[in-house]
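worker-03 picked up job from queue 'complexes'. Input manifest follows; two sequence lines, order preserved.
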Amino acid sequence: MTTSATTETMTGTTAPAVLEQGYLRQRGRLEKAVGPEWYRLIKGVFTNPLSVAGLIIILGFMLTAAFAPVLAPAPTPTWNTNIIPRDGFASEPQPPGTPWRSSAPQTIPFWYTPLTGHEEWVHLMGTTSGQYDIFYGIVWGSRTALLVGVLVVMASAVIGVIIGAVSGFYGGWVDEILMRFVEVFIAFPFLVGALILSSLLIPKMGRSIWPASIALIVFGWTTYARLLRGDILATKERDYVDAARASGAKDIHLILRHILPNAIYPTLVVLSLDMGAIVLAFAALSFLGIGVQVGYADWGQIVSHARDWILTLDRHWYIIVFPGMALLLYGLGWNLIGDGLRDILDPKLRGARG
Amino acid sequence: MTAYIIRRLLVLPVILLGVSLIIFAMLQLLGPVERSALYVQRIPFQEGAIDAIIQRYGLDDPFFVQYWHWMVGREDPVTGEMVGGILRGDFGYSRTGREPVIDLLKRRFPATMELALWSFVPIIGLGIWLGVQSALNHNKPIDQASRVLAILGWSMPTFVFALLVLLIFYAQLGWFPPGRLSTGFSQVVQRPGFTPYTHMHTIDALLNLRFDIFLDALRHLVLPVTTLAVVQIALLLKVTRSSMLEALRQDYVTTARAKGLRERVVINRHVRKNALIPVVTIAGATVAGLLNGVIITEVVFNFPGLGSAAAAAALSLDALTMLGFALFNAIMFVGANLVVDVLYGILDPRVRLE
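worker-03 finished. Artifact:
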């Protein structure tokens, strides 16, 4: 954890005076702003080729989400963009390149004709049964994925961190009760619990991203609580915590300023891995029909149309291949970042690679 | 050791009580009308009949009164017989299964069990083997390949993978059909000449010496087993690999080498034996992964097990079936974790002292 050691290897100089100077010069604006441990994390993520690949993939999805109106314009200006426009109601899916007959977007964006060679809108990735445009669903589905990911992961993490911190810091019967509570939720396999709660919430809340998101939060926060509790138990015994306590710091101050910032790093790894895993779980629920309504711009929902065409999947491959690729890449991106973070944070691996 | 097991066993009733409370609370998300299926199989359509049922069975009683009745059952005020009560094995009537929930669970269980048991073969075989090979050839091609495999397998959404293998091996090549048995054989196994010892077709077929049925059942199992196993292989590979790498760096390994043992003996006796102990801990996660995975797998491959029953129930808001399934899952999972904990305690004496 020592800053000087890392800087030493970074500068590679030996003379103490030079080292001192080099050390000061090395501390750039970023390092001063975020502190040494965060700086090491950020630097690590941006230098490990695997996590850089992950970052590029996720950046790609963020850009797709941001420029969705340019990539896949809605048919009318007042269109609810979460709903995929449909070209008629026929049940047979249409292959990529089929002309878009009704409710095609009125505008042709600048990139469209040069890249695709078409003057008019066609279904670039085909349509599902019910003639929902797959390309539109994939572009706008990246918004759904990022929104659901951030929403569910942040909510789960906040709940988990609060409960884990209280449990680990106070110990005793508080810990005992909270951990039994956690164990009860852990007794449900994640997807089983989420499936059931989500399906029971739908009649109350209607179909949207909310029932599945809430269900994923309810059965997802326990990971964070357990993990953070363990790390807090290890951190609170440190001398600097005793020193702060001896100088009269209040509990809340101790947790927020001294313990949590030093115990949070393993949680970051899970946070990143979860950003992918949660979206895959959400898509799985959508695929089973327990989540958003048919026609919602969500990758899992698009794939669910393939269930009606199992016998002829070889002809209707585009229903699963395109949204499947989106899901795989999205999961892969976050997993690569998470794995990179873990390598940086794992003290056993430290120094093992250059 | 005994004290350790007893301590683990004492927590069990507390967890199960909590699990039943959560399940009951989820049930309460539904109105009294839906919950009346606990006591009557078909709600009559006469005016006021529903209110009468609600009155008769106290479906608008306070939470804990209802919980008590749900657990131990209650006397029917008209006929005087005991109805309901999950402790009496009465989970109510399954609308989607058209039979009592407990019968549905019993009837569907062997198919799921067969699927899960078979998937342990590739999970344990390939997962551990690849993990060991990967660690022994650290940073060589086989290591890189299995790491890529692990991260891809881990990022792949189950339902997309399932549909892709169906696309290739069923729709395209016609090798492995969905379902559990071919039509002809599924009638044979119902007939009196075939004794269903376990209701698992592969085992029954062998016991009845019907190798044609065995091969047919196996042919139907290939794709779902592969689907279930892929994620778990990735997980086991990762854990085995890092555990092996750590064991290889231990001092006793250097000692073993220094005293002149052959490399093969060092690996088999000193490294692998110790490296596989921590692998036991993820057995719990594997069980959870399988319980989660069977839902999607059985739905996609049209495999008539518990998972597809639960998915069908979730789609048509058949709460009692879902909750029976949830309880079953929770008991399986808690039981599996208990076994894992005890096993770990036996293998690694340090755990017992905590």
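worker-03 released lock.
The mean pLDDT of chain B is 85.
The longest helix of chain B spans residues 211-248.
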